[in-house]
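Page 42, continued from yesterday. The earlier attempt failed because a stray header line got pasted into the input along with the sequence. Redoing it now with the clean sequence only.
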Amino acid sequence: MDKLFLHLTKKKISVTVEFKKCYLEACLTTKDSVRALEYLRMEKPPIHKSLFKVGILTCASAGDYRRAHEILNMMKASNILPFPGPWNAVIDAYAIAGDLMGARNALKQMESVDGITPDISTFDRLLKACVNLKD
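This time it went through. Structure tokens are written below.
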């Protein structure tokens, strides 16, 4: 997939959002948060919000909260307002990593910085963080 994508990019062949999303979903399947973030950094604006969503989900599945936060910030910088879904994925990344304080702080940011009201999925992820709590 990488070789095909690089070949198309070098030839300056237009690639659809669906193809790009497919590439990121391959990263999600392998929990390759590094590759997902690298791809999003290469992407030229405007970046479709579905690509940010899959990128954040990839980081969350890997428990990579730093990269999940970075993609969320990229999303905001692209003037795509976050909604509960991406924030929930960031909180999930903390939960998978067993970082309850990080998950709690992300919830506070979600509410105070972005003014987003948590939903039932948000609290589900916070409970997951409690279950995965590391000493």
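Notes: The mean pLDDT is 87.
Reminder to self: strip header lines before submitting.
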